[in-house]
Amino acid sequence: MARNGRNGKDHGNGKKNLVIVESPTKARTVAGILGSEYEVRASIGHVRDLPKSQLGVDVERQFAPRYVVPKEKREIVKQLRDAARNARMVYLATDPDREGEAISWHLVQAAELEGVPHRRVVFHEITRDAIREAFRHPREIDVKLVDAQQARRVLDRLVGYKISPILWKKVRRGLSAGRVQSAALRMIVDREREIQGFVPQEYWTIEADLAKAAEVFRARLHAELGKKGTLEIPSAEEAQALVSALRTARYRVAEVRRRDQTRRPAPPFTTSTLQQEASRRLGFSAKRTMTVAQQLYEGRPLGSEGAVGLITYMRTDSTALSDVAKQEIRAYVTERFGADFVPAKPRVYTKKAKGAQEAHEAIRPTSVYREPDAIKRHLTPDQYKLYSLIWQRAVASQMADAVFDTTSVDIEARPPQGRAFLFRATDSRLRFPGFRQVYIEARDDGRDEDQDTPKLPDLQPGDDLDLRELYPEQHFTEPPPRYTEASLVKALEENGIGRPSTYAPILSTLQERGYVEKDGRVLKPLELGFVVNDLLVEHFPDVVDLGFTAEMEEDLDAIARGARPWVPVVQEFYEPLTRALSRAQEAPAVQEETGETCEKCGKPMVIKWGRFGRFLACTGFPECRNTRPLEGREEERREEAADEPCPECGAAMVVRSGRYGKFLACSRYPECKGTRPLLQKTGARCPKCGGDVVQRRSRRGRTFYGCATYPACDFTSWSRPLEEPCPSCGGLLVAAGRGNRARCTACDWSGQPGKEKELTAASGGPAS
Fold first, then answer.
1. In sequence order, what are the residues at sequence separation of 6 or more whose Cβ sits closer than 8 angstroms to the Cβ of residue 55?
2. 81, 326, 465, 474: which one has the fewest Cβ atoms less than 10 Å from its Cβ?
3. Contact criterion met (CB below 8 Å) for 321 and 328
């Protein structure tokens, strides 16, 4: 690249270099680092895409995509085109992943940059050193990465626009299928059916309080002496027989094993593990995690230091750290905790997940010396929590092992006659905290397996022990747990389904479509989810097959490496899809026989799906259009108790379903006809009083949103509030038009929280 002065200015004609990034926030941070001699503008996310109202893929001509510039992006593209014509050099500095590469490629096409000198620059952190290094090594756009992203977009469009109409026709309008989304739905539904079909098995355990002199400790019955394997106690009768025998037994220490046990720290975060840990520890959804991580990556103003990116790029499946980062962390730990807390050599982590691309670094703070508490005043509460988590995990990953002193004691129990048994007791004490001084990884069940256990007395082989008490306890085997967002993301990654950028959108879509609901922390499939999944499994088995979906991801990775052209990959997928589509078109609509007849024409009535759920409909449609609510059938009533009294008579209220969804009704109906709307929480907080924002319906049936404390607070909005706060001021975001756009009710910010690509600058135009 020809150099045009130290800071990019052409001193001969006064032209500047133009730098294009995706978002206004990123533009402001990069501009502050590059200085006034560079002009930095934002494309506001993608500038071209497939048309929304059409397939946009010519299946007859090698799946050629037809890209269009959306109406709302035309002015932005025009401004970028004009700015590029007056620039010395155009630098495309979009994100360092396949989608970022594709955005740069689309910018070249849409803004007509082919005749303008342009280069691609890539940096994984928005810091002065990283950006300067990137501008010293610009490159051409990587067409292989563009092809991989283009293949993914075409595949997803084919699935969405070819299969979704089948769901509309066979179930109801408004449903959708997705190449990765549908595989994830199948995992949730299969797990739920596994739970439903699970038959608990009874088993018993026996523990004993034993004593050496006055020191009492507890041990568990482990095995029968002389036999391999753990002793199984299947019934109360067997447990009672064992207790009777053990009461007469002599207890003696058989063996004492003492050893050091070390625990290694977890590797620094990938996208997947960050989403999992933020879910477990902070209660963040995957979408919320990625929104906040995007803000930390793009930069926050830190007083006199100015705006700076606080973490490295947050879409990654690599656990590697740069040598510079490792040395900085080791130096910090030595200064802060002492040399004992640093291992002899820097730790090296190897990614094990299926399909890992190892594209770049793990997620880490851009400087370990920016301690979370030192910059807390510059961050929102969510930003502080997530930054602290990332900082702690990265620091701990380069610290020394934790060391435990562990003792395991085997105790013989010998009754006067019959079988002899083995009890076991363990003792674990933390001797050296190591990495645990900074961070302990959370688990789905909330337990820490490395925590200290009750201390054992000083036991030696041959010591006789006194029996104080026996404790038989009944248990039942449990089904596999339902997925949480954390465990589903982990399972998707382990199966090679999806990639870092897809996990959050998958989870959001499944819930927004009404296929899955979040019950506390777990994901439960709704009835509509079962119906859609079963239809897809029957007619499109490849689309929901986990192995097939994982193989498709591997094919996309091969395209990115240049090992395969993208068109044959799409062709191999599309040919069986067309055959499945043909068969599915002939399948009957999803409906359920009832044994009832239509009171108007006498034909059978069936259960169908509609906009507001299931209902009874006449099979004589369209000649007979008779329908009635499904709730009219007594066996279909599902009344859920509510913790609210009836406003008319004070009796308990129950949740019922009506034409406009669920509502609260008096349990004494029809004697009392008291009703009350069922407040459906949105997850957003009222900007006036901090209460819950809930969904309501107007007298004309139109949906609106208001504060749950009404009439004490009169806040209302016709636009759907979003859970995540405004990235600019922390105010309430509401949905604004198509494409997952949002706007703030407190300031002028508007954008797209979806893939964390902002769509509209705070000023209404591209940042510079």
1. 157, 158, 161, 162
2. 474
3. no
**What does the pLDDT look like over 609-650, one tens digit per residue?**
776 677 888 888 888 888 887 754 433 344 566 667 787 887
Catalytic residue, chosen from 91, 297, 313, 503, is 313
Q: Determine contact, residues 694/679, Cβ cutoff 8 Å.
A: yes
Question: Do the beta carbons of residue 78 and residue 41 sit within 8 Å?
Answer: no
CA-CA distance, 335 to 557, in Å (whole number)?
A: 42
Contacts of 666 (CB under 8 A, 6+ apart): 646, 648, 649, 651, 653, 654, 672, 673, 674, 675
Q: Which pairing describes strands 57-58 and 64-65: parallel, antiparallel, or unpaired?
A: antiparallel
Give the C-alpha separation, 764 to 750, whole Å.
Answer: 8
pTM for the model: 0.76
Question: Which candidate, 276, 342, 726, 722, places its Cα nearest to that of 486?
Answer: 276
The helix (run of H) or strand (run of E) holding residue 519 is strand 516-519
Residue at token pair 């239809």: 535
pLDDT tens per residue across span 713-741:
888 888 888 887 887 777 788 887 655 67
Which structure tokens are listed for 646? 């009836």
Beta bridge mates, 614? 609
Instruction: Give the residue carrying structure tokens 């090698």.
Output: 62
SS (H, E, C) 615-673: EEEECCCCCCCCEEEHHHCHHHCCCEEEEEECCCCCCEEEEEEECCEEEEEECCCCCCC
Q: Which residues contact 445 (CB under 8 A, 6 or more apart)?
A: none
Residue 103: both structure tokens together: 């955005």
For residues 676 and 699, what is the distance between their CA atoms, to the nearest angstrom? 13
Per DSSP bridges, beta strands 613-618 and 64-65 are unpaired
- The secondary structure of 666-731 as a DSSP string is ETTTTT---EEE--EEEEEE-TTT--EEEEEE-TTS-EEEEETTTTS---EESSPEEEEEPTTTS-
Give the Cα separation of 404 and 386 in Å (integer): 29
Strand partners, 202: 476
Other residues' Cβ atoms within 10 Å of the Cβ of residue 256: 18
Whether the pLDDT of residue 760 is over 50: the answer is: no
Asked if 313 is an active-site residue, the reply is yes
3-state secondary structure 450-507: CCCCCCCCCCCCCCEEEEEEEEEEEEECCCCCCCEHHHHHHHHHHCCCCCCCCHHHHH
Residues 6 or more apart whose Cβ sits within 8 Å of residue 377: none
Per the model's pLDDT, the better-predicted residue between 604 and 393 turns out to be 393
Q: ω before 96 within 30° of 0 (cis)?
A: no
The pair of three-digit structure tokens given for residue 545, joined into one six-digit string: 């097959």
3-state secondary structure of 556: helix
Beta strands in 110-264 (DSSP E): 118-120, 202-212, 215-224, 250-263
The residues facing 524 across adjacent strands are: 517
Map tokens 């730990």 to a residue. 333
